[in-house]
Amino acid sequence: MPSWCNNDLWVQGPEEDIARFKAQACAPVQTYNDFSGFAVDGWPVEKLRALTDALPADGPIVDFSFHGLVPVPDDIRRYPYDCRIAKTVGAILGEPKTQGGHGWEKSNWGCKWGACNTKLYGETETELWYSLDTPWGPPLIFLRKVSERWPTLRFIINYDGTHDGEGRCWLEGGKNKRFPQRPRLADQSPQLVTGSLLVTEPKIRW
User: Fold this and answer.
1) Which residue from 60, 63, 69 is spatially nearest to 142, judged by alpha carbons?
2) In what helix (H) or strand (E) does residue 9 lie, and over which residues does it extend?
3) How far apart are the C-alpha atoms of 24 and 149, rounded to whole Å?
4) CA–CA distance from 65 to each of 11, 170, 202 (Å)?
5) What are phi and psi of 92, to 5 degrees?
6) 135: which residues sit within 8 A by CB, 6+ positions away?
7) First and final CA of the chain: distance in angstroms?
8) Residue 195, CB half-sphere, CA atoms under 13 Å: how many?
9) How do residues 110-133 score in pLDDT, each as one tens digit?
10) Is 198 helix (H, G, I), strand (E, B) or coil?
């Protein structure tokens, strides 16, 4: 079982962009064609091809979907999540695969599975507050990609529960500045405290 990292994410930006981001983030979680319970190397080629020609059904809709913001390509989702099985099926079908869903998520999101226990727990016209859990560490690679795709938005994440302890990261336009320790409450002025998310820098007025 992984060690879970607890994340609080604050998103700030222009009203129209915040509305569009909220709508895109609220989406199904990623799914894959799962062959993990079978010895696929003994299957007829026609059966394997029929299974991989179809996309899996969408997963449940959540408040903050990694797949909604940085989608897993259909060509990856048609194959198994397990990299070894995906490579085996691809070799049988003459469609070589270098990775399955697990490898793609690690490369493009920085963590497997995406996020769980996601919740939008506060919002204004120009701000959104999310809580989410990720395995082993914060989703900084994922958030860097998201901030590149949404250059008008500011992303601040507070996280703890990792091997390195707690930390804080600020991302805008694909660039980030990481703070190794969460600031002490006594040091903060002015303060914005929402749940366990502490933001002290002045808000941007859009």
Assistant:
1) 69
2) strand 4-12
3) 12
4) 15, 20, 28
5) -65, -40
6) 2, 3, 4, 5, 111, 112, 113
7) 43
8) 19
9) 888 989 899 999 999 999 999 999
10) strand
Q: What does the alpha-carbon distance between residue 131 and residue 77 come to, in Å, rounded to a whole number?
A: 26
Give the integer Cα–Cα distance in Å for 13 and 170.
Answer: 14
- Look at residue 39 in the predicted model and tell me its pLDDT: 64
Amino acid at 53: D
Residue 142: enclosing H or E segment and its boundaries? helix 140-149
Sign of CA dihedral 105, 108, 111, 113: negative
Q: Are 142 and 148 in contact (CB under 8 A)?
A: no
How far is the C-alpha of 50 from the C-alpha of 81, rounded, in Å? 17
What does the alpha-carbon distance between residue 32 and residue 70 come to, in Å, rounded to a whole number? 16
Distance CA 195, CA 192 (A): 10
pLDDT of res. 190: 35
Letter string b/e over residues 183-206, b meaning 16 or more CB atoms within 10 A of that residue's CB: eeeeeeeeeeeeeebbbeeeeeee
Cis bond before residue 190 (omega within 30° of 0): yes
The residue assigned the tokens 């930390």 is 167
